[in-house]
Design brief:
The protein is an alpha/beta fold and about 325 residues long. The protein has twelve helices and nine strands. The chain has two domains: about 120 residues, Aspartate Aminotransferase, domain 2; about 160 residues, Alpha-Beta Complex (Aspartate Aminotransferase, domain 1), CATH 3.90.1150. Helices cover about 40% and strands about 10% of the residues. Helix 1 links the parallel strand 1 and strand 2. The structure holds pyridoxal-5'-phosphate.
């Protein structure tokens, strides 16, 4: 069982093992809908073995009730901490406390070319997990990639005073929706690499992760998130999904719900604002996932964003969302 709101890479490992994935419904805040879980569980033709529960965008949820629900049914709970800066610090604050296994993606928080954590509170559960070194050539490529990542600007932005001019030319055309592919059922993505399953993360990734400042990362991400919150408070046609940033949360991205994804999402993309959304998602009868698929944008709050880059993104998002489609086309 996996959350109805998902990116395809969340389902890939299970699909690659030949498992069938059942999507469970979520509440508006993306926590599992506990009142409908039993219904979904009972509908599953095959016995349910594993459930994935996600702390979306780094907002740590209390999954103690879910752990109990899984225990009663002998389901293995996998706690998805991909959006959590998973350190001892986060563990102390709740992340990684609920699952029999905990998976996290440190490359989302550190400038490392790859890397993944698999953690089990009961270490014996990991006894059968074997990984091999990536090999000499991959390690060399990893060093090159680490050097490139450290030099790359996080966003390629035009001047702030060019936004209006650029926007004028963008809004004069009808937005092209791109390849909006709806998956009728969970399907493995082309990004999945079976080879990487048993490959250890690169030494360069481990070096970068071990030598990065956790506290600097935490402070800057929180500051960028707060900066977005302040800037977006008066912006029309949108609302922030998590408008409070608790002290213990290290945000992965800022989830912004936009009322008119067409045209606003396309205009933002065409302006070059680095935003994401999970439109390549398998359909389910979860209304929240269905709605968020096109409406929920993920805005960056990465620690390496400069003040200039934040100001540029804020100016671009504010200008775009303040434009109504009719006005803009008219
Ligand atoms: C919530 C969530 N879980 C799991 C994954 C998969 O993580 P990885 O890329 O480390 O395999 C992702 C990837 O973006 C994700 O967003």
């Amino acid at each position: 069982m996996a959350p109805a709101y998902h990116c395809v890479t969340m389902l890939d490992p299970a699909l690659a093992m030949g498992a069938e994935v059942v999507l469970y419904p979520l509440n508006a805040d993306l926590t599992p809908d506990r009142y409908r879980l039993d219904e979904v569980y009972k509908q599953s033709v095959k016995p349910v073995r594993v459930m994935v529960a996600t702390h979306f965008f780094g907002f740590i949820q209390d999954f103690s009730w879910l752990r109990q629900w899984c225990e009663e049914k002998a389901i293995v709970l996998v706690e998805d901490c991909a959006h959590v800066l998973f350190t001892e610090r986060d563990q102390a604050r709740g992340a990684g406390k609920f699952g029999k296994f905990v998976a996290s993606s440190p490359y989302k928080f550190f400038p490392s070319p790859d890397g993944g954590f698999l953690y089990a509170p009961d270490a014996r559960r990991l006894d059968g997990v074997g990984i091999q070194s990536a090999g000499f050539l991959s390690e060399l490529r990893g060093i090159k990639r680490s050097a490139e990542i450290s030099r790359e600007p996080k966003i390629r932005k035009p001047d702030i005073d060019q936004i209006d001019k650029l926007l004028d030319s963008i809004i004069s055309k009808i937005p092209e929706p791109g390849n909006d592919r709806v998956l009728q059922r969970p399907a493995q993505s082309t990004r999945y690499s079976a080879d990487s399953v048993r490959t250890a993360s690169l030494r360069s990734s481990r070096w970068v992760i071990n030598h990065s400042s956790i506290s600097g990362n935490v402070c800057r991400r929180q500051a960028n998130y707060r900066c977005w919150l302040k800037a977006l408070s008066d912006v029309p046609n949108c609302h922030v999904l998590y408008p409070q940033l608790p002290e213990h949360v290290v945000p992965y991205m800022l989830p912004l719900y936009v009322d008119f994804p067409n045209p606003h999402f396309y205009w933002l993309k065409q302006l070059g604002v680095p935003i994401w959304r999970w439109d390549e998602m398998a359909v389910s009868d979860c209304q929240v996932a269905h709605d968020h698929r096109l409406h929920l944008l993920h805005l960056p709050c990465h620690q390496s964003l400069t003040g200039d880059e934040m100001n540029w993104m804020i100016a671009a998002v504010t200008k775009v969302l303040s434009l109504f489609e009719e006005e803009a086309r008219g």
